[in-house]
Design brief:
1056 residues, Immunoglobulin-like, Methylamine Dehydrogenase, Chain H, mainly beta, five-stranded antiparallel sheet, 8 domains
Amino acid sequence: MTTYFHLPFGTLPSSILSVSTRMAFFTAAIFILFSNPVLAQTDELNRLEKSGVVVLADKGAVAVLVQGSVLYAATERDGLYSFSLAKDRFNPEPLSAGGVKELSIPTGGIAVAGNFLYVTDNLKGVVVFNVAKPDDPKLVTSFKTADEAWDVQTDATGNFLYVAAGKAGVETWDISNPSSPQRVGQTNKLTWDFAWGLTLQKNTLYVSDRKNGVKIMDATRPTVLTLKASYDTRGELRNTFITDSLLFLADGLVGFEVININNLSRIRRAYSQAYTQGYAGAVIPYPLNPNFIYVSGGRAGLFIYDGRKFYDEEPAPDKTDKFVPERGFLEYRNLSAYGHAIYVATNKGVHVYQYDLSPLLTNISNKTSDENQPFKYVFEGFDPDSDKTSITLAGITAQTQGSAYNKATRELTWTPTFEQSGKYDFTARISEQTEFGLGTEQKFRLTVPHVNRKPTQPQPLDQLVKENDSLRYTIPEGTDPDKEDAGKLTYIADSLPRGAAFDADSRTLRWLPDYTQAGDFRVRFTVRDANTDGKGILTDSKGIGVRIDNVNLGPKFDSLETQVFAENKAQTFEILARDPDKEDDGKLTYTATSLPPGATFDAAARKISWTPTFEQAGDFKASFTVRDQGLDLKLKPAAAFVKEDKLTVNLTVKQTNRSPKFTAIGAKQATETKLITFTIAATDPDKEDLNKLTFTTGTLPEGATFDAGKRTFTWTPTFEQSGTPTAVFKVTDTGIDGTALSDSEAVVITVSNVNRKPTMEKIADAGAIEDSAMTFTVNATDPDKEDDGKLKITVAGAPNGSAFDGKVFTWKPSFEQSGSYKLTFKVTDDGALTDETSMTIKVDNKNRPPVLTKMEGKSVEEKADLLQVVNAADPDKEDAGKLVFTAEGLPQGAKFDARSRTFTWKPEYGQKGEYKVLFKVKDSFGAEVSEEVSYKVGKLNRKPAMVKIKDASLVARNSADSASVGTSLTTKFSATDLDTDDKLVFSATGLPSGATLDEQGNFSFAPTEKEVGKFTVEVSVKDGVGGEDKTAFRITVAAPKKTAKPSAPKPKKKTK
C-alpha cells in the first residue's frame, strides 16, 4: 500500500489519553505531510491485538480514565476501582482491595483536576473523590445538577467544571474548593434534547445534545456560555473529539461521522460510516500518533481510523484496523489509552488491547551521481509511535565495487570509476525494535551517468601559395580518451576564406585563391566528440595561418564613344579604369595629357567639364593616362611593378539655335456685332533667320480670321460672343541647328454684351380641389446667354397658403378656399428688362362627412320610459342646417322623430333582452355616417297566483289492523304566473306528520291513527326572483273505523 504519513509537530504532551482528557491532549497537535512524490514504499499492516487481560470481568465497567500511571474504572454497581500501570501497562495491578462504594449508578463521565477525581452519577449528580493516594480514594462530596449528570470536563485552570446535565443542558461549577463546588452558570435558556457528552478545546466547548446533534459554544467566560453554531446529526450523538478543523462524532446507532467545521456558517459532512448492530459511544486519538482515531462501537467492536484521509477532497478513508469482539454480547463503551495500550470499558469488565504502527522511511528517492564523483546518502526514517528503529540496505554487489553501507550511521558511500556508469537497484528496510518487529521496505535506484572527456586536435601546419595557385592540405587526425567516442569524432572548419572548402570526412582543406585574395588568413579546425553523456559536445580547436602572395595585374580603361557637346551649354563626362587587383581599388592615378581650349579635368572625380562658346562648333580630341600602385609579392609599392593604360576620346561641338521673340501686342476691346482688326510683329537674334520667320495661329474666336502674310487679325463678334475670348499667335524660326524654335503670345479680347428682352412662357389655367395639393412649373427664356441662370420670376395675386420659389408654384387649398384665383407671373433679366403672363386657378369644394356625437347604450326595465337625443355636426359650412337623421332596427313600440332627432320607447312586459338600433346622419352631398347603440331591457317581475285549494276530510287507517282501510289525499297544487319563464317552487307549513309536498306541488297524505285531528296547512309558491303567493286549506282526519273479527271455524266431527 502507498503511505503518505502525517506527524504531529513538536513533542506530544502525553502518551496517556481517555475520553475525558482528549481536549488537553490534542490542542497542540498539528498535521505535517511526509510523502515521497517519486517512490511508493510498502508498509506492513498496523497491528491491533487483544492482550487477553480483562480486569473486573465480573462487573460492568462504565468509564475508564488513565491519570499518570494509574487506571481508574467506574463500574455499574460496585463503585470505583484503581489499578497501577507502572510495571506493565498491558496487565493492570489492583491498588485498592475493593471498589469505593460511594458511587450509585455512574453514567460514564470521569475527569481529574489536581488530586481530585470527578465522576458523574445518575442518582447523586457528580461525586468528588480525593485521589492523592490512588490506592485509597476518599469521598470528598457530591452535588446534584438540575437534571441527570452524564459527562464532565475541567477547564485549563482546573477551577471550573463543565457538566452535561441532560435536559438542563450544560452547567458550570466552581471547583476551586473541591469540597464545596458552587454552580455559577447554566444554559437552560437554550433548547436541549439531552446534553450527553462534552469536549473542550481551548475556549470552545463541544456539547453532544443527543437527538439535536452537536452544539458549539464559546467558553471564553466559563460562567456565561454562548452558542456559536450547531450541527444536526442523523442519530443520537454520544461523544465528540476535535482536531484542527475536523470534529469526530460518536453518533450512537447511526455510527461514526466526521464533519468539517473550518467555516461554522457552512459546516459540512466529510465522512460517515454505519456500524452493523453497533453503537458509536466514544472517540479518542491514539496518544502516540494522533493521526489515528479510536472509536468504541458498542457490540460492533473497536474501530481505528487513519484520520489524515478525512482531509482528502473526495474522502474515502479505510479503517486502519477493526476488532470485532467475541460472542457473548460484549458491549464496548468508554475508552482510555496509555502508550500502545487501549483500555475499553465493557459490560464485562475492562478489556486491554495493544496497537502498534509500522515504521516508515521518509527520504527515499531515486538518485544520480556522476562517474568519479563521491556519493553519500544518509537514510532517514521514524516510527509513528516513537519506537526505536534500525535500517538495513540490500543491493551492494560486485558490480558496485567500492561502495559501502554503515548501519550505525545509516550512510551509503561510493565513488564510481569512469568504467562504472549504469543503473543500480537497492532496497532499504526500516524495522522497529519491539516485540512486534514491524517494518517497511522501499526500493530506490542509483543512476551513474557516463562522464564525457574532451578530445584533442594535433596542431596543423601553416600554408603558403600565390594568387591563382591551388592549395590542398589534410589536417592530422584527432584523439579521444573515451572508448565510447572511438570512431565517432567529427571535424569542422570555420573562418574559411572566400572560395575555400573543407571536407570533414577526409579532413582536407581545398582552395584556389583568385587575384583579389592576396594576404594573410587564419583558419580554425575543430574536432568534436559524440556527446556520449548527453551534457553537450566537447571539442578541441587548432588554428593555422595561410599566406597568399600577390600577383600584380595592370589597369584597363573603359572605352568611350565620341562625346557630343552643344555651343554655350555646360556638359561633363567621366572616364573609368578597372584593375583586377582589389588592392588597387580606389588607388589608381589619372592624368589628362591633352584637352580642348576651355575644358578642365578633375583627376579625383575622373570628370571632364566644358562649355563650348558659340564660336567652337567642330571636332576635338582629349587624351588620358592611368597608373596602379605597382605592388610587389608582399603587396609593397615598387616602381618596377607599376603598370599603366592610355585613352583618347573624340569630342564634337554642334551649333546652338536661339529662339525668336514677339513684339508686345497687348489686350484688345470689342463690342458684339462691331468689327475689330490689328497687326502683329516679331524679331530673331540669329541673322540667319532674318525675314525667314513664319507666323501662325493657335486658338482663335469663332468667326475670326488671320492673314499670315500681312500678319493681320480680323473679327466681328455675334450677339452670342460677349466675354473674354483669347487669340493665340505663334512665330517660328528656320532651326539652324536642326531644331526650330518658336515664341507664342495670347491676346485677350474683351467683347461687351448688347442686352435683349426676356420672354415668359404662357401658363394654362388650372383646377384644384380643397385639401388636395397642386403644383406646376413656371418657365421663362432670354436670348442672351449672359442671362442664363440670372432670370428672376415673381408672382402677384397668390392665394393664402401657396408658395412660389421662382420656378415651382405649390398650394394645398384649405376646406375654406373653394373659388377662382387670378395669378400674374413676371420675369426680369439682369439688365432690368421684363415680361409677364397671367393664369386662373379654380378650386372646387371637397365634401366632408358629418360626425355623430358618441352615444352610450342604456339599460331600463320593462314598462320604463326611455328617451335619447341624437346629435351630429358637419365641418362643411355648405351643409349647415341640411343634415338628415334616420334610425333603423327600432324595437316594437319604439319611435324616432327625425326633426327633433329624438328616440323614445316604453318596453312592454315580455321585451326583456338586448336591442341594437342603428342611427344614421347624411349631409346634402350624400355623405353618411352611422352608429349602432345597444339597449338592454331588464325583466320586471310579476308575482305568481295560487289556485284556491279546497278543504279535505279523511279517515285514518289503523296501522295495527291489516284489515283497516282509511282514506288518503293525493293532488297537485297549481299556480299561475304571467312571466312564463319563471320557475315556480311550492312549499308548505303546518303539514301533518306523514304528509309530503314536493317543489312541483305534488301533495300526498295517507293518515294513520297517529294523525287524527284537524290541520291548517298554508301553501306558498315562489317564482325564484322575489315573487310569492300563499293560500291555506284545512284537513280533517277522523279516527279509524272498527272492523269485524272473523269467527273461528267449527271443529269437524270424528268418524270411526
